[in-house]
Amino acid sequence: MVLGVLAFLAAGQAGAEQIEVSQEATLKVERIAGGLSHPWGLAFLPDGRFLVTERGGRLYLLDADGGQRRQVAGLPDIEPRGQGGLLDVALHPDFADTPWVYISYAGPGDGGVGTEVARGRWNGQDLEDTEVIFRLQPKSRAGQHFGSRLVFDGAGRLYVTLGDRGNRPRAQDLDDHAGSVVRIDDDGSIPADNPFVDRADARPEIFSYGNRNVQGAALHPETGELWTHEHGPRGGDEINIIRAGVNYGWPVITYGVNYGTGSAIGEGTHKEGMAQPLYYWDPSIAPSGMAFYTADRIPGWQGDLLVGSLKFATLVRLELDGEEVVHEERLLQGDLGRIRDVRQGPDGLVYLLTDEDDGGLYRLGPALEKR
User: Could you give the number of structural domains in the chain?
Assistant: First the structure.
């Protein structure tokens, strides 16, 4: 629940500031860059600059204050289609010594398009030696449900979240990447301990399946496990903890219903052998972006899970007790636009991207702190 907005200055322009009062903190919200066309993913370079993707196929390098930007060269062949295009961006976990930049995107090929992952060597301005390290198979001509977030775990393995491409049964087919979370090594090779690596009827990259369209993912700061959220149909957006070989149920079980008719989907909300969500939203919030807040700059938020909402243009703050959500607060309701990505920066502040024609990069921090 938002308690109030105290001030709003020069809305829609870089440098604009807003004061937002939450239940645990009084925050200053700054627009540090604007004029981004449907930005999707954000990464922080060690020198303070930002990498920002635009769904239309452009990767931008922004300086530390957001005032200057340049388009980054060296990207693979990207085909924007519907919800697909250039999606997430991530840095190699040992970036100082291994300066690879990873991107996920809709790539063309036999049968249509599908989510792909490529990496390029960062030279300070552009990508070099770019290579594709993962391709969703099979491709299709649909324009929805591409996923896709990129998260490295503590062992340096890369999780890639994938949507069902709008074709529900694909999420239950282990011989199909769609509707799954895959796990690969940093060069695209397959970890020997992936759960289906020895099955002839399964894609060896698959780590979990039965996922509808995962657009938020983050490692838990204490357990190191991957937490995700996924879009449900009408209702039934879920938060899950992704564990090896687990079937998360879509479309056999769901808390959502069909668009338009409101009719039931699948077999209900529970089935033996299929995991229950840790938390779900009904009605849907259309979640995108996710981060655990672990810094001390906003003390009242430590340990909380932050989720962006496209539908309500809202930042959702979830208080946790272990694996239980014990409280939900909604902030910035409609003030900024559709929140596509949520990140904790190296400075301990929170950064947001808004998915709009004139999208922005925003920074949230304590209102009374001197910087």
Answer: 1
Q: What is the pLDDT of residues 89-116, one digit of tens each?
A: 999 999 999 999 999 999 999 999 999 9
Q: Assign 3-state DSSP to the chain and report helix, strand, coil percentages, each to 5.
A: 0, 45, 55
Residue 175: per-residue pLDDT: 98
- The rounded distance, in Å, linking the Cα atoms of 48 and 367 is 21
The per-residue pLDDT for 3 is 33
CATH classification of the domain holding 97: 2.120.10.30
**Distance between first and last Cα of the chain:** 28
Note whether 302 and 294 are within 8 A (CB): yes
Phi, psi of 332 (to 5 degrees): 55, 40
Select from 142, 202, 178, 179 the least CA-distant residue to 254.
Answer: 179
Q: For position 14, what pLDDT does the model report?
A: 66
Among 317, 323, 311, smallest CA distance to 287 is for 311
Residue 216 maps to a domain: yes
> Is the peptide bond prior to 251 cis by the omega test (within 30 degrees of 0)?
yes
287-292, strands of its sheet edge to edge: 287-292, 305-309, 314-321, 324-331
* Ranges 10-14, 39-43, 207-211, 343-347: which has the least confidence: 10-14
pLDDT in tens, 154-207: 999 999 999 999 999 999 999 999 999 999 999 999 999 999 999 999 999 999
- Give the model confidence (pLDDT) of 311-341 as tens digits: 999 999 999 999 999 999 999 988 899 999 9
Q: Are 34 and 80 in contact (CB under 8 A)?
A: no
Residue 39 covered by a domain: yes
Identity of the amino acid at 322: G
Residue 317 structural domain: 4-366
Told to judge if 177 belongs to the known catalytic residues of this protein, a careful annotator would answer no
What distances in angstroms separate CA 122 from CA 90, 96, 196, 279, one per listed residue? Answer: 12, 10, 33, 38
Rounded CA-CA distance 142/144 in Å is 6
* Three-point CA angle 271, 275, 279, nearest 5°: 115
Q: Which of 145, 177, 229, 231 is catalytic?
A: 145
Residue 371 lies in a domain: no
